[in-house]
Amino acid sequence: MQRIAMKGRWDAICRAVGSIPPKYLYTLFLLMAVGISFHSWYSSQDMEKWTRYNNFLIFKDAWSHLIHNQDLYVLYPAEYYDLYKYSPTFAMWMSAFAWMPDVPALICWNIMNVVVFLIAIRKLPVKKEQQSVLLLFLAIEMMIALTSSQINVLITGFFILAWHCMENRKIWLAALLLVITIYIKIFGIVALSLFLLYPQRWKAALYTAFWTLVLAVMPLLVISPEQLTFLYKSWAYLLANDYSASYGVSVMGWWHTWFNMDISKQAFMLTAAAIFILPFIKILYSRETKFNLSMLASVLIWVVIFNHKGESPTYIIALTGVAIWYFTQPPTRLNTTLAVLTLIFTSFSSTDLITPYWIARTYVEPYAVKAVFCSIVWMKIVLEPFFVAEASKVVLVEEHLKAA
Fold first, then answer.
1. DSSP letters along 290-356, please?
2. Are 204 and 178 in contact (CB under 8 A)?
3. What span, in angstroms and rounded, lies between the C-alpha atoms of 249 and 347?
4. Fewest C-beta atoms under 10 Å: which of 40, 99, 140, 164?
C-alpha cells in the first residue's frame, strides 16, 4: 500500500510539473548559472586565500601557464589549490575565457555549460510535458555541478549530442564531440563504445583517429613541439600516479567504506568493463536498435560510478543517465521506485537545502551514498537487453502457437 501511495504521489507531482512549459525551466537553469556565478565570486571576497570557484581558476590560469612554457601539472598555490589534470589542448581552449575578469568569465563559463546541456536535452525523444519533469528531476544536481564551477554539465551535453549525431548518421560530428570530451576528461573514451551500435563503425574509427590527431597537435599554434611533448609526458605521469590515490564517490568507494573491502582497482575495473560491454555484444547479435538510448544512459552512469576520482559534482552526468533511462520508456512501479530513491539518495542527500550539512559531511560523502542507487539502476540497464529479449521470444512463441 505504501508503494502504491508513493507512486500515486509521484504521478501527481509529474502531472503538475509536466504542465509547466519547458521554456520556463530553461530560464530557471540560465538564471541559476548567473546567480551561482555571482554567489561564488561574492562569497569568496572574505576568504584570505583562494576562492569558492577554484576549479574554474584551475582551468582559466592553465592558458597563461601554457603560453609561458610552464609545466601545467604542478601546484601553483599562489593562484589556486589542487592540480590541473586535463590536456594541453583544453588549456588552449581556455583562452576564450582567460582574457576576461573573473566575474564575467565565470558567468560565461556556467552559461556555456547550461546552454550546451539544454540543447542536448531538447534532442532527446522525450515529450514536452515529460521534458519539464526531467529538467526538474535534474535541477538540484545541476545546482551542485554549477556551484563547483567544473565542466561536467558540458560533458553530459556532448555525450547526448554525440548520440543524437550517431542516430542521424553525422558520424564525423559525433566523433569530434566525443574526442573533445576525452581531451577534457579522459573517461570520454568510454563513450566511443556507442559507435559499436551503428553500422558505420570503420568510418567512426577513422574520424576518431583524425580528430584525436588534430586536437592533440592543436597547442602547437602557441608552443613548440618540444614543450608539447614534455607536457604530454607530464600529464601521463600525473594520471598514472593519480589513479592509486583514492576510491572516490564510486562503487569502489561504496564497497570499501560499507563492507571494508580492500579492492584491487585493476581487477575491479576489468570486471566492470566486462559487465559494461556484455549488453553491447547481445544487442549487436540481435540487432535491437531500441536499446541504443539505454546504452547512452549506461555510459553516462558508468563513467561516474566507476571513476576512482568521482566526486559529488560529477553526478550530474550519472543522474542524467538515470533520467534518460526513466523518462524515455513507459514507467513501471519498479522503475519509478528506483528513480525516486535515486533522486533522494543522490541529489537530496548532498545538498544542505534538504539534508543537514553535518549529515552530508559525516555520512553521505564518506560512505559514497550517491553511488548506491545509481549503481543499482545501472545494473538494471545492463541486464534489460537480456531479459527483454527473452520475454520477446516467449511472446513470439505464444503468438505462433495461437496462430497454429
1. GGHHHHHHHHHHHHHHT-TT--GGGHHHHHHHHHHHHHTS---HHHHHHHHHHIIIIIGGG-TTTS-
2. no
3. 13
4. 99
> Sign of the CA dihedral 119, 121, 125, 126?
negative
The owner of cell 607536457 is 231
Which pTM was predicted?
0.90
The predicted-structure confidence for 223-234, as pLDDT tens digits, reads as follows: 999 999 999 999
Structure confidence at residue 102 (pLDDT): 92
**Closest to 159 measured CA to CA, from 198, 194, 196:** 194
How many other C-beta atoms lie within 10 A of the C-beta of residue 381? Answer: 23
Q: How far apart are CA 176 and CA 372, in angstroms?
A: 32
- d(CA 197, CA 241) in angstroms, rounded, equals 34
CA distance 107 to 273: 37
Burial zone of 167 (CB within 10 Å; 0-12 exposed, 13-18 middle, 19+ buried): middle
**Do the beta carbons of residue 66 and residue 91 sit within 8 Å?**
yes
Distance CA 298, CA 261 (A): 25
369 pLDDT above the threshold of 60:
yes
Higher pLDDT, 70 or 330: 70
Q: Tell me how far apart the terminal alpha carbons of the chain are, to the nearest angstrom.
A: 42
Residue in the structure block whose three cell numbers are 543522490 = 346
CA 114 to centroid of chain Cα atoms:
13
Taking only Cα atoms into account, the Rg of the chain, rounded to an integer number of angstroms, comes to 22
The type of residue at 152 is N
Q: Distance between CA 156 and CA 34 in Å, rounded?
A: 20
pLDDT given at position 17: 72
Query: Given CA atoms 98, 99, 101, 107 in this order, what sign does their dihedral have?
Result: negative
What pLDDT does 313 receive? 87
How far is Cα 138 from Cα 130, in angstroms, rounded to an integer? 12
